[in-house]
Amino acid sequence: MTLIKRRGVYHARFKTQHGTKTLSTKQRDKRAAAQAAKEAGVAEIEAAAQAGRLATEAMSRALTGRKVTLAAAIVHYGEWQGSIGRSARFIQEATYWLARWVRELKLENQPPGIITEKHISKFVNDPDSKLKLSSRKQVLSFITTFLDMCSAKGWVVGNPARLVRINFAVLSHEQKEAKTREPFNDLEISRILHNTEGFWHVATYLGRHHGYRLGDVCQLQWESFNQPGQIIVWTDKGDVRLVHKVDSKLIDEIAKIPITDPKYVFPKEREIILSPTLRPVLSTQFKRLCQKLGIKGKTFHNIRHTYATERKNEGAPLETIRGELGHASAHTTAGYIH
């Protein structure tokens, strides 16, 4: 603890588990100020903060035989997510954002126990960030599950992420609003199919006739076609099993794909989609393809909207469409119907 004088009054500056604090003693005499600070228990607060830091480090050493840093904990998190069956894409995206969070706050070499809600809010509620509301929610979810794991391992006490909420006040109107997606029309889909082959032809066909995500097409396996007349896919998002009937047109297109990998139909695209930094390459490719064909303002994900909208127009119940798209909630599915 140190005493500092401001405008003739002494203030006590001391350390807590949440950073340095300053408290006015309301005394102009230094000796009286020291006594006031003592009566306020400032020394005990500092001692408790120090004990808390030492306890966190001691616990980490006891559990792992060494000091656990946030950087090391993120590696443990990725391994844990893999052990419970999370997809490689999810793990890469989650660990990417966790690593970026601790790097930007310069906390890589600090133990998980130092994290407070302020460290989390500073990142997810950064007013200068261009992230939209949905992305901020996703990042907060990654941090929350990460700290849940740290809590289970005894590296933190409680989970400060559960005290954090997205601050709407720092978001612009555009950041708050979900992006409006319009479905493709039949002429646009036909134009794409007639001017593509290989990956983009198959991807567009599966999106249009079965509502597949781009990530699911990128990770398509040869074994998905083992059953005659069917395609069986475990979705990348949510690990939902989807079974659809396929016609000879799709089988003919798949037969044209050169086998460059024993497991995956499109290994090159799979590598791209699994990388958080490379993934936008595929979106850019599709955007340029559409622009070349005179189609503007639409992404590959709009094709899922096309599928959902047509199924609804055919009279399919919302719950049926939800199952076909692999959504967890019918509310999500309703947003795909135009």
Task: Outline the structure in words.
The structure is a single chain. This protein is mainly alpha-helical. 52% of the residues lie in helices and 9% in strands. It has 16 helices and five strands. It has helices at residues 30-39, 42-64, 70-83, 88-104, 117-124, 133-152, 173-176, 186-194, 199-210, 214-218, 248-255, 267-273, 280-292, 302-313, 318-325, 330-334; strands at 2-6, 9-16, 19-27, 230-234, 241-245. The strands form two sheets. It has a three-stranded antiparallel beta sheet. A hairpin with a 2-residue loop joins strand 1 (2-6) and strand 2. Helix 3 runs antiparallel to helix 4 (88-104), helix 4 (88-104) packs across helix 6 and helix 9 runs parallel beside helix 14 (302-313). It is elongated and about 90 Å long. The termini are far apart. 26% of the residues are buried.
Please give a handful of descriptors for the protein shown.
elongated; 9% strand; 3-stranded antiparallel sheet; mainly alpha; 338 residues; 16 helices
User: What's the overall geometry?
Assistant: elongated
Percent range for β-strand residues: 5-15%
Report how far the terminal alpha carbons are from each other.
64 Å
Q: What about the largest sheet?
A: 3 strands, antiparallel
The ordered string of helix (H) and strand (E) elements is: EEEHHHHHHHHHHEEHHHHHH
| Low-pLDDT stretches | none
Give, in spatial order, the strands making up the sheet with the most strands.
Answer: 1-2-3
State the secondary-structure class. mainly alpha
Binned, the helix content reads 40-55%
Mean pLDDT: 88
Q: Write down the Rg.
A: 27 Å
Work out the helix count: 16
DSSP E strands, number: 5
